[in-house]
Amino acid sequence: MTRRALAAPTPALIVVLALLAxxxxxxxxxxxxxxxxxxxxxxxxxxxxEQQFLTVLxxxxxxxxxxxxxxxxxxxxxxxxxxxxxxxIDGDSVTIERGxxxxxxxxxxxxxxxxxxxxxxxxxxxxxxxxxxxxxxxxGGELERWNLRLTPLQAPVAKIVRQIEITGARDxxxxxxxxxxxxxxxxxxxxxxxPQ
Amino acid sequence: MRRGALPxxxxxxxxxxxxxxxxxxSVRSDLSAFLPVHPTEAQQLLVDQLRDGPASRMILCxxxxxxxxxxxxxxxxxxxxLRNDPQFVTIANGEDLAADRDRRFLFENRYLxxxxxxxRRFSAAGLGEAxxxxxxxxxxxQGLLLKFLFPRDPTGEMQQILNQLERMPGPxxxxxxxxxxxxxxxxxxxxxxxxxxxxxxxxxxxxAIRAAFERSLPQSQGAALQLQMSGxxxxxxxxxxxxxxxxxxxxxxSAALIVALLLxxxxxxxxxxxxxxxxxxAALAGVAAVSAGFGVxxxxxxxxxxxxxxxxxxxxxxxxxxxRTTDAMQRWRRTFxxxxxxxxxxxxxxxxxxxxxxxxxxxxxGLYSIxxxxxAAAVTRFVLPVVSPRALTVRDLTPLGAAxxxxxAAFKYPRAFSVxxxxxxTLLLVLHRGDLxxxxxxxxxxxxxxxxxxxxxxxxxxxxxxxxxxxxxxxxDLQAALxxxxxxxAVLDGLVASGILAAYESPTLYLPxxxxxESRRAxxxxxxxxxxxxxxxxxxxxxxxxxxxxxxxDVAAARNAAPLLPSDLEGTSLNEGFDTLxxxxxxxxxxxxxxxxxxxxxxxxxxxxxxxxxxxxxLASAGVTVIDLKSESNALYxxxxxxxxxxxxxxxxxxxxxxxxxxRSVARIARVLAPLILAVxxxxxxLALAGRQLTILHLIGLLLVVxxxxxxxxxxxxxRADAAASPHGGTAAEENLTMASLGVANLGTVIGFxxxxxxxxxVLEALGTTIAPGAFLALLFSALLGAHAxx
Lengths: 196, 791
What we know:
Chain A is α+β, with helices and mostly antiparallel strands. Chain A is 23% helix and 45% strand.
């Protein structure tokens, strides 16, 4: 859990890992068209319900709010219930606002946030190159109902996150499930706001 | 006994004595010349802070240029090198070195440190609320971190402590190190072991930082980077360099220019050398007098010493030019000397008024000038005639004097001209009356404005905005100060809640008083009670009591833990925070400092101090006071200004008294004073017109204008009196010579003070820009009004 253990890999390492990245298993063409579809979308907004299944608790913890995305780099998670929190990611800057406090972090300094931010945001942006730098991709289904499994490539990240599974329909994300290495798991169910 | 042996004997003895005193003199170049001798309590705190307080030991460093990665690597390399240097107590650059240790300390002592620890917190109801809160927290972004602590800390005391400590946002970090808001500078804060007032120690620390910076990266990469430093110690080092620079370089330059002027005028090397005798004697006597009177000489006094060259040289100029032959020398003593003496006494009157100033820099200037002027005049009168060779002849300046007088005659309506100048100046001053005086202590600072701006920028980058308002709690010992701080903090919490304050800091956030620690520990229930309370609290919650077994063990351990003392903070970065907010005074009393932070957004940026004072009033008997350092320091300066104005007025009055006693004629007094008043008003108006606000130093400069100018005015007044008393007394040649000597003397003064106007030390620059034009105008108005009176 210490930050030292999670020290960000050097850029050189990232490049090497990207070169070694396994080829995509599923039909590369379908993934490419999904990425193109997602990349074409400039704005997205959805309400979410997130359930966290933690080993220390006997019942899941549930939170609700809204997820907002603006291409290419802005991602905002507004939690309303049970406690208000606003998490804003802009480029490499992460802002957490809660109970009148405002924390600004640099994404590069907090690698434990990387898998969630990169995984979700790069998917929304349709940025396959970025995804492949950090994850092994497994694509399943078709554009109408697809499923993308992200497995961290880098050892320090893999120590926290085992897998991220994203389910969607065309350019809408419907479900994000994160499996943590310690057995805990979170499930975010999204309901897109219908465009007016 | 040979004629003139006595003056020589007295002079040599005086020089020898002065040399002995000067050799033992210690020169001080810090800012204390501008701090009061007998401060109030609030002023004392300010002085302590400026001189030795924790803030005075801080050197802010910024690395700019290159790219972010390069800057981050340089920052890490500089910090690593400096951390091994015993000159520094701490080096902070945002790297997370102490964080693990800090977190462990906070976590292990959470039941002593958390303000949320009360008996109610550990009742069944209290536990239920606190644990539910923590469960909610697990769903948040920080949940990932918190869930590991949850079984040991289900009530969230660690989070509570982090919230207590994290009120102030720190700087941004990029690449693991602190950077400015725009990301263009990497920031390092070095805290030196040497106090801020230890200028040599600060200079060594700065050299160490620079050396570490230069070795931080290979030459090829490091060349793109630049290092900036700021802070009280850095200012003191720069101020000393500037003052020494001014004292040495400008003195040499000024002396060289005046020697050149005299060479051109006299065309006689012996005359020039002899002419410098009174000047050198005066400077020596001035330093010796200050050293004997104050025990220490401020660098600024030495810098000011240059100005004396300009004035002291006048006496010998009058002597040489006005007494070209032996006959004339006798005559000079009889006719001119009384005027020179009266002029000198007028100057002394002016400077004597500075002696009682509470501002040591000002009092030193007064003593220095008095000793210097008396010496210069005495050496001119008694020593020069004895040591001057009989054959000494200087160039005949009659033509120069005649030319000057012709030039003056070109002014057809001198009185009308004077009235217009008077009216214009007065009007300008009345128009600028609101912002005529600079009421900010920083106006007196020897620190150039550009450096002050860099400092403000770096502080803003660090989020360490200048501490302006603070609550001070005095105690007879550390624990008393901490207990008082806790009482004050309870009141301040209310003010934060009601939006009057954004936040405050307190040493008790890092280390609560023993009394508070004791009461928190006493609030922890015994093992059986806690287990029972926990069981009933968790019955309805999402957590099983068994999961929280480590919590029961930790509370049991905390019940038996020893209380925390300041020494327990050592090795954590909390120590630095604590040290900054606690001051041990010379008398063994302790001060706890609670800096207040204004509501930034939506507020005026100013704290409603009246509300804070009212809220804290009941605690006054517990040693709690509210201090506004900025207005305190401005009040300090305003008191100097008021004092200087009062003293200058007293000096002016004593000058008028002196003139009344000697001249015994209202009309003559008026004729002496009129040109001086005109010159003073005119210079003040010119400064206002140039957008300059007047400081104490400008005021001193104006006093000097009167002191120097009185010589000119008296000469013109005397000429007229002579002419009236004996029509054959003043010859045309003599008049021409007098005019020439005044012109040359004036040029010498203008050169001496004019050079100060180019000084990097703001205070010396203020003197130069006031006196150089003032002296010229005093001569001009004296001549114009004198010429008019003669016509």
